[in-house]
Amino acid sequence: MGERKMKKLLLIGSGSVHTYNYYNLIKHYFDDTLLITNVVQKIEGNISVIKGDFTIKKPIKAWKNFRFIKKAIQEYTPDLIHVQQANSTAFLTLLANRKKNIPVIVTAWGSDVLKSPESHFLLKKMVRYNLKQADYLTCDANIVAKKMLELEPDIK
Fold this sequence. Notes:
Blueprint: E1 8-13, H1 17-26, E2 32-37, E3 47-51, H2 59-76, E4 80-84, H3 88-96, E5 104-108, H4 111-114, H5 116-119, H6 121-133, E6 136-139, H7 142-151
Helix pairs in contact: 2-3, 3-6
């Protein structure tokens, strides 16, 4: 009988209650989790937490953040990547994962698809890219799902 493969999750998201609640909901489905977040909080389980930055306003900062996430993916070698919010966090992660082809779930939380795309045409392009490139999409409200489909009708 073969040896069971360890299941590893790379969870990437802001230090919001949503990210930490999500981890507490799914932690028993993975043997190990690496969380990259901008706000580190105390959390228990088979989880390592490292502080990251997801800003893209300055090109040099965006490049450094992209490289940081790409290195984390290469070194951690997750089986699944789950990104909390379809904003710059997802954008940097999807770009960093392009050649690795690890399945990526993007969870939209609201303002990332309801407000941000309306504030600037580049943000709209970024959110559309995120929606189109993610392997799986989730959200917790019908209004968010409807807006996701409106922004990117060709969602897989």
